[in-house]
Design brief:
The chain has about 350 residues and is an alpha/beta fold. The protein has two domains: about 10-30 and about 240-344, Aspartate Aminotransferase, domain 1 (Alpha-Beta Complex), CATH 3.90.1150; about 40-235, Type I PLP-dependent aspartate aminotransferase-like (Major domain) (Aspartate Aminotransferase, domain 2), CATH 3.40.640. It has helices at about 10-15, 40-45, 55-60, 75-80, 95-105, 120, 145-155, 190-195, 210-220, 225-235, 240-265, 285-290, 315-344; strands at about 25, 70, 90, 110-115, 125-130, 160-165, 185-190, 200-205, 270, 275-280, 295, 300, 305-310. Strands 2-8-7-6-5-3-4 form a seven-stranded mixed beta sheet, sandwiched between helices. A four-stranded antiparallel beta sheet has the order 9-10-13-12, with helices on one face. The protein has a two-stranded parallel ribbon with strand order 1-11. A hairpin with a 4-residue loop joins strand 12 and strand 13.
């Protein structure tokens, strides 16, 4: 399996720091979980029933016509490639790696693209898979551009798949309202924005035939009863005001994180409300520097870069600020020593 952020136990073991003493900024998941509703005993004791209104609530929340609840968007990412005949599939060179992994495993031919090359290369593809915003770079694609690419693909019987796991704070950029169109698939996640990754809940928005095929492949009871209860509460129309307030607050925190990083010589090249992406030549060294202080971030090898998630409280912000201050002083000291040696 591929490695992901959030492997806190492995980091605790490697660095010899107790689990409770870590500040985990590695996942891009909202640090404050959405308030949990009271879960009735029947949700634990009975098999889940799919006519509870969960998918209708998702449609109302996202502005879609049809939805299928899945055990996190990861479940759909793994299953969807199995529904397609052998295809030429375009993926970004740096994106959520599970997409490429799943399409390759299903026997499809992958073409890795830079975002700037998509338009020129589109006619070579049967399927284009994008995350919008992209993870980890934060790169965004305008809805009009995505719909144009979808139309060109669909004209040849192709498909556009858009993973919107990080779009909840900017819903105006979503393609959910268009997801009923043949050849367009949109994935939404409850885990990121709501800070509820542990319940494993997401949605596939697409035309009815594809959703029926996916439902058949995933089988019965894909979502647990308790997860359905939590999802209903989070997506309920009565929670729209709370969702808007959360989106505004996460946007504010995302901007604050970008400013904090820039103030310490780390310039984000992109990001979302939930994370900032920083290409830096010394990524591995900085990753280790922070980890030795009990701060876990997400390390990427190519290009050398780090993804920073949001601290969950004021103590976490202060702790990150102090660590970045220590890093800046350490890096400046190393540079001064190198220059001194060079001119000695």
């Amino acid at each position: 399996m591929l490695e992901h952020g959030g492997r806190l136990r492995a980091a605790a073991q490697r660095y010899g720091i107790p689990l409770a003493d870590w500040l985990d900024l590695s996942t891009g998941i909202a640090a404050e979980p959405w308030p949990l509703p009271a879960i009735p005993l029947a949700a634990w004791a009975r098999l889940p029933e799919e006519d509870d209104g969960l998918e209708q609530a998702a449609c109302a929340c996202y502005g879609a016509r049809q939805a299928l609840a899945v055990a996190g968007s990861q479940a759909a990412i793994q299953a969807l490639p199995e529904l397609f005949p052998p295809a030429r599939v375009g993926v970004l060179g740096l994106s959520y790696a599970e997409h490429a992994h799943a399409w390759r495993r299903a026997g499809h031919r992958l073409l890795r693209l830079d975002a700037a090359a998509i338009d020129a290369q589109l006619d070579k593809l049967d399927v284009l898979v994008l995350a919008n915003p992209n993870n980890p770079t934060g790169e965004r694609f305008a809805p009009a551009q995505l719909l144009d690419w979808h139309a060109r693909l669909r004209a040849r019987g192709g498909c556009l798949l858009v993973d919107e796991a990080f779009i909840d704070c900017t819903p105006e950029h979503s393609l959910a309202a268009h997801a009923h169109l043949p050849g367009l698939i949109v994935l939404r996640s409850v885990g990121k924005f709501f800070g509820l990754a542990g319940i494993r809940l997401g949605f596939v928005l697409a035309e009815p035939g594809l959703l029926a095929s996916l439902r058949e492949r995933l089988g019965p009871w894909a979502i647990s009863g308790p997860a359905r209860c939590v999802g209903l509460a989070a997506l309920d129309a009565a929670s729209v005001g709370a969702r808007r307030r959360r989106a505004a607050e996460l946007q504010r925190q995302g901007q604050a994180l970008a400013e904090l990083l820039r103030a310490h010589g780390l310039n984000p090249a992109g990001g979302t409300a939930l994370f900032q992406w920083v290409p830096v030549l010394q990524a591995t060294v900085l990753y280790d520097f922070l980890a030795r202080r009990g701060i876990l971030v997400r390390l990427f090898a190519e290009p050398a870069s780090l993804r920073f998630g949001l601290p969950g409280d004021e103590a976490g912000w202060q702790r990150l600020q102090q660590a970045l201050h220590d890093w800046q002083r350490s890096a400046s000291g190393a540079l001064r020593q190198a220059l001194h040696k060079e001119h000695a």
